[in-house]
Amino acid sequence: MSYSIPAQRYETLLEIKKSKFYACAGFAQTREDAMLMLDEVKARYPDARHHCWAYLLGHPDQPLSVAMSDDGEPSGTAGKPILNVLQHKPVGNIMMIVTRYFGGIKLGAGGLVRAYSGAAQQTMETLPVITQVKLNAFTVTTDFAQEQFVRHWTESVKGKVTDCTYSQAVNLSIAIPDSAVEALRQYEGSLGLTVKAVKE
After folding, report:
1. What is the full DSSP assignment across 48-110?
2. What is the mean pLDDT of residues 60-66?
3. pLDDT tier at 197, thresholds 50, 70, 90
4. Which residues pair with 177 in a beta bridge?
5. Which residue stretches of 45-180 are H helix?
6. CA distance readout (Å), 109 to 41, 113, 117, 176, 183
7. pLDDT tens per residue, range 120-159
8. Residue 50, Cβ neighbours under 10 Å: how many?
C-alpha cells in the first residue's frame, strides 16, 4: 500500500510566552535515520535546553516502530504529545524533533503539552509530502548485452536496482512498483530474461 512521507526536511517556529519551539520534521526509514537527524538538529541548535522528539516508521496505519523522548522535560509533556500528533496524521516514515529555547516564563505541565503538540501540529499542517509507493522485489537473470536495458528500464518506471552480481550471466536484484510488474513479465518472454519474484 502506498502512503505519504515527508518530501523534505521542514521546520516551523511556534513562540509561546517567550519560549521558542522549533519543530523539524523529516523522512526517516530506520531508527538510525531518525537518530542521525536528531544529531544534526542538535548541532544546529547546540545551546537549546531540550530536543524532544518522536518518530513513526513504516505505514502510518500499521507502523513498524514508534518511539519518543521528553529529553529532560517533565515526563509525558513533550515526546508523547508529539507522537500523538504523528499518529493522527496519514504520514509514515517520519521523525519530528521539537527544539525548545526557554523564554523565562514557566508554562506548567499542561502548557508544555499544548506547546509541544501545537508545534508538531503546525508543522504537520504545512509539511510537503510525496507518495511512497510499495516496491516489488525481483531477481532478473540476463546476458551481458541486456544489462543496460534492464537497468535503464528499471529506473524509467521509478524502480531501483538494489544489487548486481556477475557469473556466466548478470543477476540483477530490482524493486519496481505494481504498475511495472506486467511489463517485466512481458519482457521476460520477449527478451528471454529469467525473472523470479522475491517474497518478503
Report:
1. -SEEEEEEEEE-SSSEEEEEEE-TTSSTTSSHHHHHHHHHTSSB-SEEEEEEEE--SS--HHH
2. 91
3. confident
4. 135
5. 79-87, 108-126, 147-156
6. 24, 6, 12, 48, 57
7. 999 999 999 988 777 888 999 999 989 999 999 999 988 8
8. 20
- For residue 188, give the 3-state DSSP assignment: helix
Which three cell numbers mark 148? 543496460
Give yes or no for a contact between 96 and 25, defined as CB atoms under 8 angstroms apart. Answer: yes
Are the CB atoms for 45 and 11 separated by under 8 Å? no
Q: Per the structure block, which three cell numbers stand in for 101?
A: 529555547
State mean pLDDT over 8-34: 95
- Backbone dihedral angles phi then psi of residue 195, each to the nearest 5 degrees: -115, 130
Alpha carbons 58 and 53: distance in angstroms, whole number:
17
CA–CA dist 105, 114 (Å, integer): 15
pLDDT of amino acid 131: 85
| pTM of the entire predicted model | 0.71
The phi and psi torsions of 164 (rounded to 5 degrees) equal -155, 130
Burial of 24 (0-12, 13-18, 19+ CB in 10 A): buried
